[in-house]
Design a protein that fits this description.
Belongs to the class-I pyridoxal-phosphate-dependent aminotransferase family. Keywords: Aminotransferase, Lyase, Pyridoxal phosphate, Transferase. It contains eleven helices and twelve strands. It is globular and about 55 Å long. The model has no long low-confidence stretch (mean pLDDT 96). The protein folds into two domains: 113 residues, Alpha-Beta Complex (Aspartate Aminotransferase, domain 1), CATH 3.90.1150; 212 residues, Aspartate Aminotransferase, domain 2 (3-Layer(aba) Sandwich), CATH 3.40.640.10. It is α/β, with parallel strands linked by helices. Helices cover 36% and strands 16% of the residues. The protein binds pyridoxal-5'-phosphate. Pyridoxal-5'-phosphate (PLP) binds next to α3.
Length: 337
């Protein structure tokens, strides 16, 4: 049985270099910290997300009626599981386990479609059963780092089906290619996160982009004041053109960092899955469990892969950081021992 509630944050520990959690910044940038500090004096008031809704809509060129701010991308899955009663919910795996966990917790049956390592974890739409009335897919997918073509995702649409695309990491891909966020597409719901790029996982800031009827159904089951005042402030701040441009340059840096990491891994003879496009890579190493524990001994926490449906103990996920020399040296030693 896979532990769907296991997440990378459980794998970090005192003194370990954190390559297990995909939050890119060690702390929020100074301009964001300043705005967050400034809003604290206003905490006596209940939160009002109207400004955040408008800012997010403007950032994506959408109507505010298409936007629902949420307490992190993760809340969107819980809202969806509560508001929808799919006859056949399909979750495309391996992927972030929260969508399936939320559906199961709400008593919704889930069918898994497992993509294969041999195919580089590329999405084959023919694998999704015709009867699926809810399909959840990550783009780029955590943990495979694969970016699926927008056209393939659009091809999943059917009358009476909701296609949920988790774009939690798309702002970490330069230019946000293959995103479905910019247009109101019937039957498509896009989920975004601000927590990874901006180092605000503790703040819980994400949002849904969908048709107004879909947004309304989710809003109807959202707990009141679910999005806090600081989260709403972060949504406005991170939607400004300068912030979006900064996210893009962070994404470009991550792209270069990932290129160096992948080259280093390959030079150690490590198999890197698929064509990674996100700021993390999935690798397969025989004896991965032993390697992961030995890396911890050496001071590095990487994310175990065996809690993702479709992967086993030989799979490890490694977050991309600017300087991976120490990690690659430690891994080389572990592999040689
Ligand atoms: C693919 C994916 N989607 C969504 C989330 C949740 O993001 P948030 O912190 O915005 O709730 C995560 C967190 O790890 C994730 O990996």
């Amino acid at each position: 049985m896979v532990d769907l509630l296991h997440h990378g944050d459980r794998e970090v520990g005192a003194g370990l270099v954190d390559l297990a959690v995909n939050v890119r910044l060690a702390e929020p940038p100074e301009w964001l910290l300043r705005e967050l500090r400034d809003c604290v004096a206003g905490l006596a008031a209940y939160p009002d997300v109207r400004g955040a809704t408008e800012a997010l809509a403007a950032r994506h060129g959408r109507d505010p009626a298409d936007v629902l701010p949420t307490a992190g991308a993760a809340e969107a899955f819980t809202l969806l599981a509560s508001a929808w009663r799919p006859r056949c919910a399909v979750v495309v795996h391996p992927q972030f386990t929260e969508p399936e966990a939320a559906l199961r917790a709400a008593g919704r049956p889930v069918t898994r479609v497992l993509l294969s390592a041999a195919d580089g974890f590329v999405l084959d739409p023919d694998r999704v059963p015709e009867e699926a009335d809810l399909v959840v897919v990550g783009n780029p997918t955590n943990p495979t780092s694969v970016l699926h073509p927008a056209q393939t995702l659009r091809g999943l649409c059917r009358p009476g089906r909701l296609v949920v695309v988790d774009e939690a990491f798309l702002d970490a891909v330069p230019g946000e290619p293959e995103s479905l966020a910019a247009h109101r597409i019937p039957g498509v719901l896009v989920i975004r996160s601000l927590t990874k790029t901006w180092g605000i996982a503790g703040l819980r800031a994400g949002y849904v982009l969908a048709e107004p009827e879909v947004v309304e159904r989710l809003r109807a089951v959202q707990p009141p004041w679910s999005v806090s005042t600081p989260a709403a402030v972060a949504m406005v701040a991170c939607s400004r053109p300068e912030a979006v441009a900064e996210a893009d340059s962070l994404a470009r840096a991550a792209d270069r960092d990932r290129g160096r990491l992948v080259a280093g891994l390959r030079s150690l003879g490590v198999e890197v899955a698929g064509v990674p496009r996100a700021p993390f890579v999935l690798v397969r190493i025989t004896g991965g469990h032993r390697v992961r524990l030995a890396l911890r001994e050496a001071g590095y926490a990487v994310r175990r892969g065996d809690t993702f449906p479709g992967l086993g103990p030989d799979w490890l996920r490694i977050a991309v950081r600017a300087d991976m020399h120490g990690f690659l040296a430690a891994l080389g030693q572990v592999l040689a021992s």
